[in-house]
Every structure is written in C-alpha cells, then in structure tokens.
Design brief:
about 140 residues
Length: about 140
C-alpha cells in the first residue's frame, strides 16, 4: 500500500516537473521566435539542427552564388559543376601531363610579362580558380 502511494506521488512530481520544463521551453521559444519548430521539450535544439541542415543541404545554385558574391568570389557556373572531378575516376597520366603543362604555361607567362598569375590566366583563357586547384594538386603530386 505504501509502495503504491510512493509510486503515485513520484509519478505526479515527475509530471509536474515535465510540465514546468515544457512550459518554460515553450516560453523561450516564443521569445526567440523560432520558426518551424515542433512543440517538444527539445524543440529549440532540434529546430536549430534541422534549420542548419536545411540550409546546408538544400541550397540552390542561386543561393550559393549570392553568398559567394558577398565574399567577392566568382560565382559557380553549370560548366564548373560539369567539370568537377568529385566522384569521378582518377586522372590518367596524359591528363596530368596536360594540366602540368597548363600550370607551367601560366607561370612562365606571368614571369615573362611580370604580371600576376591571375592576369596570366586571363590572357591564356584559363579559369584562375581552376589554375589554383591544379597548381595545388601539381605541387602535391610533384
């Protein structure tokens, strides 16, 4: 009999504490004005994670370009995406040699005309970002 009373009292206290926590978090959510967050005890943290994941994985090309333009970086084009090596086969030796030659050509042109690598890329018709990536990998591979 006493055990049943103790179990009932402890369950009641637990329910009151849970209700208090729920109402406190609900009040905080109203203050913070979180959008798209469900009515749950961990809504604040869960909602922030969901919002962060949505922006990270569902960004459109236009949103990415808008962010990049704010940082004064050249926008991504569909050609850049098509030319991306992500998830593709490794480069053959001929492709490495071609890239190596292009990197050397840009470096020689820059030295010859005493201009920056970026200007040399413009004159040779090579994207500067692509050149930087190739140069970085060229240095790694040797």
């Amino acid at each position: 009999m006493i055990t049943m009373v103790l179990i009932g009292v402890s369950m009641g206290l637990f329910a009151l504490v849970a209700l208090y926590i729920y109402l406190w978090i609900k009040e905080k959510q109203v203050e913070i004005k979180l959008k798209r967050v469900g009515d749950c005890i961990f809504g604040h943290t869960f909602g922030r994670i969901v919002l962060r994941m949505r922006t990270r994985f569902s960004s459109t090309l236009a949103e990415i370009n808008a962010r990049r333009e704010k940082r004064l970086i050249q926008p991504i084009t569909q050609e850049d995406i098509k030319g991306s090596r992500v998830g593709r086969r490794p480069l053959t030796d001929d492709e490495w040699k071609k890239r190596h030659e292009q990197v050397e050509a840009v470096l020689e042109k820059a030295k010859e005309l005493l201009i920056s690598e970026e200007k040399a890329c413009e004159r040779l018709g090579v994207s500067y970002d692509t050149f930087k990536n190739w140069k970085r990998h060229w240095v790694k591979k040797g």
